[in-house]
Amino acid sequence: MMNYSNVDVWIQNASVLSEDGQLQRSDILIQDGKVLAILSSGWYQSADDRMIENENEAMLVYDAQGKLVTPGLIDMHVHLREPGFEHKETIESGARSAAQGGFTTIACMPNTKPVTDNPETVKLVLGKAKEANLVNVLPYAAITKNELGRELTDFEALKEAGAIGFTDDGVGVQNAQMMKDAMTKAAALGMPVIAHCEDDSLVKGLYVSEGEFAKKHGIKGIPNESEAIHVGRDVLLAEATGVHYHVCHVSTEQSIRLIRLAKSIGVNVTAEVCPHHLVLSDEDIPGMDANWKMNPPLRTPRDVAACIEALEDGTIDILVTDHAPHSAEEKAKGMLLAPFGIVGFETAFPLLYTEFVQKGRWTLDFLVRRLTQDPARVFGLNAGKLQVGATADLAVIDLELEKIVDPDQFATKGRNTPFTGRALSGWPVMTLVAGRPVFGAELTQSVNS
Ligand SMILES: NC(=O)N[C@@H](CC(=O)O)C(=O)O
Ligand SMILES: [Zn+2]
Ligand SMILES: [Zn+2]
């Protein structure tokens, strides 16, 4: 008989997705930050294992009452803004927002001030994340110094300092030789190159995509080729160098065609898509409101359909938020002058659940995998599965809870979202990192019997 007398957390009556995607009513026992056991709910009523209820006085107990418990969600593309832009977000506020969205592991982009292009800044980010003590924060480092595209950073030193991959997110690497050199170096170190795909010469001064919205307002739009040209160039360079090449925030049919082709001939390419590019098109933009301005921009309904299909057929591997907080003052500058970006952590799961699972297009299992075990697989993380022995990073999600998106309730400092006022279901209510509640802690009870 198992001895469960040193359990730290006992989650009762959880709905857990099994390997074959079915929901099973389970209890989860956590000890020393790890999943000790996953048992059919009700197991303790007949067994001597009742000792669990008596021996550990510090044990936290949470009755999930049938709520979904998933592996903690993983977001491989986020902006935490620290150092340098603390008025937009800090590592602490960003990590809190992530936790509130059910995320337990997030990978942050290097377009900070200074740019995370040196070992000291990588260490600073890791130090602040440790201080915040909320979710796991994995830093990316820049490909080029100051993300200027002129000179490569010191990949070896950055890896040594704890960077998990290289990217100039925020801008595209314009020079093909520079990108090829980066890929060659990264490949030698066994590190991925993560690319924001954008050809500057095609987008100068533009802020919405080429489509109905641009037409209606008589403005020139960002063409799809501005993204796809880099994807095409880079899959060729990835083929030549053998690097793991990952495409950021895919938004066009043309990019998808190229990724599909590259995958079909065995190029080591993976890709991500954001919730907003699956749910909104340029035709939904209500007017000159900068909360609808992000990079890449919202594209045509045809691109939206292509992105959804690409995620479904595996051409796109994972979901990411591209959480990009900006201050209200910055966004008030209007469509033309405001910075690109929208916040994403806290609406991601409810939005995707409401739009795709409730509407019957995806299974719950499909959605959860794209946010957990698939990002872990793509980036080689030891995370993303709820199983005995795994670190107890967990999200508790109330699929029945319906709420109106209200940015004033966000934990992020950002209020820049196009989803204000939407009625969504499937809200995270508690998040645990290594068995410790980092969001919704008040839902647990201590046992002192
Ligand atoms: N996505 C955005 O619209 N903005 C990002 C940059 C980026 O992801 O390219 C930001 O840093 O604000
Ligand atoms: Zn980007
Ligand atoms: Zn980004």
Automatic annotation (TrEMBL):
Residues 66-254 form the Dihydroorotase catalytic domain. SUPFAM superfamilies: Composite domain of metallo-dependent hydrolases (SSF51338), Metallo-dependent hydrolases (SSF51556). Pathway: Pyrimidine metabolism; UMP biosynthesis via de novo pathway; (S)-dihydroorotate from bicarbonate: step 3/3. GO terms for molecular function: allantoinase activity; dihydroorotase activity; zinc ion binding. The active site is at 322. Pfam families: DHOase (PF12890). Binds 2 Zn(2+) ions per subunit. GO terms for cellular component: cytoplasm. It catalyses: (S)-dihydroorotate + H2O = N-carbamoyl-L-aspartate + H(+). Zn(2+) 1 binds at residues 77, 79, 169, 322. InterPro entries: DHOase, DHOase/Allantoinase_Hydrolase, DHOase_cat, Dihydroorotase_CS, Metal-dep_hydrolase_composite, Metal_Hydrolase. PROSITE patterns: DIHYDROOROTASE_1 (PS00482), DIHYDROOROTASE_2 (PS00483). Its EC number is 3.5.2.3. Gene3D superfamilies: Metal-dependent hydrolases (3.20.20.140), Urease, subunit C, domain 1 (2.30.40.10). Coiled coil: none annotated. Substrate binds at residues 79-81, 111, 295, 326, 340-341. Zn(2+) 2 binds at residues 169, 196, 249. Keywords: Hydrolase, Metal-binding, Pyrimidine biosynthesis, Zinc. Its cofactor is Zn(2+). It comes from the Bacteria. It is an enzyme of class 3 (hydrolase). Catalyzes the reversible cyclization of carbamoyl aspartate to dihydroorotate. NCBIfam families: PRK09357.1-2, pyrC_multi. Belongs to the metallo-dependent hydrolases superfamily. DHOase family. Class I DHOase subfamily. This is Dihydroorotase. It comes from Saccharibacillus brassicae.
